[in-house]
Each structure stands twice: as C-alpha cells, then as structure tokens.
Design brief:
about 400 residues, alpha/beta, Aspartate Aminotransferase, domain 1, Aspartate Aminotransferase, domain 2, 2 domains, seven-stranded mixed β-sheet, four-stranded mixed β-sheet, 15 helices, 17 strands
Length: about 400
C-alpha cells in the first residue's frame, strides 16, 4: 500500500495522549531531520535523550542488518549471543553482577521496585515494603511506576493507588530523614530529574541517602534511564558522584532508538528473583541487544565521553550569549548533554510556546514542565550542528521577545 499518511491520520486513528508538531519527520541523518515537505531541522531533542548516536548511525545500521539475517526473536525459554555479550559488558563496566533485560524504562523500574520489595520480604519480612521516591520524579507509565513518580497529574484518575509509597523533597535532607525508617524497602532517585526540570542531585544529598539506606537496610535505586549511558560525560551517573547504588535502571540511550532497557544489580540482591519470579517477552531480544552492543562500545569510548563534557560548555556559552542580549533565562542547569534552561519570572509557563516557535524556525527542542527548555541531543552531535542549532535558537528567542 503506497498511501502517504498526513497529520489528520494521527487524530483519526491514534489515541490523543500526545500532541505532535504539525509536520511529520521522514528522514534523519546525524543531528538533522527532514519532514515530508523536505524542510530540514536541527535536532536538540534526541528523541528525549534516546538517539545518543544520532539518526541513521552507520555502525548501528550495520549491527541491525547483520543480526536481522541471523535471528530476530526467540523467547525467554532460550538465550542468545547478543544478549549474553551485552550483559557481560555491562557487568564488567559497573558494580553489578547480574542484568535483567526488558524493553522500556518503565519496565526496568518496575523490575527494580519489585526486586527491592521481594528482597526486603525474603530477608526482613513482609512489613518492610515502603518505597520512597521524590517530588517531581518520573519513573515510568506503568500503574506502579507512575504512582512512585512524584507528579500527581500522571496518576490522577486511575483508581486506588498502590500502597506503601512515600514522597520526599529532592535535595532536602530533613525531608528524607523524616520518612526513612526500618519499614523502608527502597529509595529510588534520578541523579538528574529529567521530566521534573533537569534538577541535579547534590553530592551531599546522595551521600546521605547511601548512608541512610545502609542504616535502615533499604536498597538504593538509581534511575538512570535518562541520565545514564554517557549522557553526562560518565558512562553512568553514579560514577560521576562515586556513590554506588544497589540497583540501577537503564533505557533510552542503551538502545539508541531500538526498544531496549536493563536493570542491573548484585548477586546478593538478584538471588531473590528465582525462576519465574519476573519476566519480559521481549527482554534480551537479539535485534535490540545487537544494536545495544555496538552502541555500548561507541558510547563507552573515552573520545565520546570527553566530547560530551566539551559540548556541554559549548552549549552553555551559546545560551549565555543569547541571554546577555535578551535577558529571558533565569538559570542553566544540568550536566553533560542533559541541559535545562529555566525561563525567568517574566515568562512563566511560556515553554511550550517557545518549543512551537523553535520548530517553526527549524529547531527541535524539549520541555521539562511549562517553564523549562530541555536539550538532550546526540552525544556525538557535531560542533557545526550545535552552531547552526544555536543560530535557530537565537532567531526563535528574538521573535519570541518581539511577540511578548
């Protein structure tokens, strides 16, 4: 069937849980995107921190094609070579001993939370089941993870919430100290809150979390779905802080656009997930893991990781120059290539308006709430693509200021 879809088809056939831009992308190369009418865009969104190696990366295409000629899918009754290779690489490069593969960040966090409760049940009894998360956190869209997340608007209207979930204030030691106790099973935290506004955890805060979890025999879970896999210039965020969690969850960049996620933990904790305790139909899919292997090799290279740090300052300097002229930004925050730009008080709730205007000017951005512009581009975006994208951001802000 050679039918060319249009945007009306989205509203006619797809549930309206998204509000897409008014043009349909059809091709990508590096950090550039082309839409149906041939217009070109610079991609600073990266598929929400997913396309870590850009669009149509030749190495990833080669890995996918090679695996496609071998085997596509089995089931969890069998294992496969790409999954075993990727698991081995993850273990060798981290504190972990064991890996669980799945397809999304929500799945990875669901597995981590279930594992934590099972661990507490096995070693300390059924009464130790409280999960502590943080306000503004986002951990996925399953019924469990959306309630663990700290945004009520995402969980409102879906019936009674799972019990045993508490929320503390991010970077607030007194808040977490009041909540954690012997009944706490786990504390889950994003080292950098993505959806919550690119809020960076302070070192002292994570250090105290580690101490408190040790004190109360609770597990510390780092949700690195958005901030892991080279995103901040270290292979994993916990390495930046030099604080070891008990469990980490990964997704997004680990598959560079192919659905892939993972939960990593130690032998001691992982042993409570015995045969049949958990599973995932597509977990360890050969196609996904073949892409993941190649992505991991590239992202873990010193040249890519050091380049992320350098590009962070290039972005930051451009943003500062724009702000010197237009005085529109209150704060630039984030690490590596996960950057948040907070609008000042004169432009509250204008983030989506700027996002739309940027798209009209050939630039793809993200929001993190109504007041934060979020940048999560490819880790290997070229300096030339950054320069061109920033020219378009300048044009966007200039037009926005004129209209406001």
């Amino acid at each position: 069937m050679n039918i060319i879809p249009n945007l009306k088809d989205f509203y006619n056939y797809i549930l309206p849980v998204y509000s897409p831009q008014n043009k349909i992308p059809v091709k990508g190369q590096g950090s550039k995107i082309w839409v149906q009418d041939g217009s070109e865009y610079i991609d600073f969104a990266g598929g929400i921190a997913v396309n870590a190696l850009g669009h149509s990366n030749p190495a990833l295409i080669s890995a996918l094609k090679e695996q496609a000629d071998k085997i596509w899918h089995l089931s969890n009754l069998y294992t496969n070579e790409p999954a075993l290779c990727l698991a081995k690489k993850l273990v060798k490069k981290t504190f972990a001993d064991k890996v669980f593969f799945c397809s999304s960040g929500a799945e990875a966090n669901e597995a981590a939370l279930k594992l934590a409760r099972r661990y507490s049940y096995e070693f300390f009894g059924s009464q130790k089941n409280i999960i502590i998360s943080f306000n503004k956190a986002f951990h996925g869209r399953t019924f469990f993870t959306v309630n663990v997340g700290g945004k009520k608007k995402y969980s409102k209207g879906f019936g009674p919430a799972p019990t045993g979930i508490r929320h503390a204030e991010f970077n607030n030691l007194n808040s977490i100290r009041k909540l954690i106790n012997t009944y706490t099973s786990a504390v889950i935290i994003e080292p950098i809150q993505g959806e919550g506004g690119i809020n960076v955890a302070e070192y002292y805060f994570l250090e105290e979390l580690r101490y408190l979890c040790n004190k109360y025999n609770a597990l510390l879970i780092f949700d690195e779905v958005q901030c892991g896999m080279g995103r901040i210039g270290k292979l994993f965020s916990y390495m930046h802080y030099n604080i070891r969690p008990d469990i980490i969850t990964l997704a997004k960049s680990i598959g560079c656009g192919f659905p892939l996620a993972a939960m990593l933990t130690t032998d001691k904790i992982g042993q409570v997930f015995s045969l049949g305790a958990h599973g995932s139909t597509y977990g360890g899919n050969p196609l996904a893991c073949a892409v993941g292997n190649t992505a991991f090799d590239i992202i873990s290279s010193s040249s890519v990781l050091s380049g992320v740090v350098k590009k962070h300052y290039l972005f930051k300097n451009h943003i500062k120059r724009i702000n010197l002229e237009f005085d529109i930004f209150k704060e630039i925050r984030g690490l590596g290539l996960l950057i948040g730009i907070e609008l000042n008080k004169n432009y509250l709730n204008k983030g989506r308006e700027i996002l739309k205007l940027a798209f009209e000017n050939g630039l793809m951005l993200l929001n993190a709430g109504k007041n934060i512009l979020r940048l999560a581009p490819s880790l290997i975006i070229s300096n030339e693509e950054i320069e061109e994208g920033m020219k378009r951001l300048y044009k966007t802000i200039k037009k926005f200021k004129k209209n406001n």
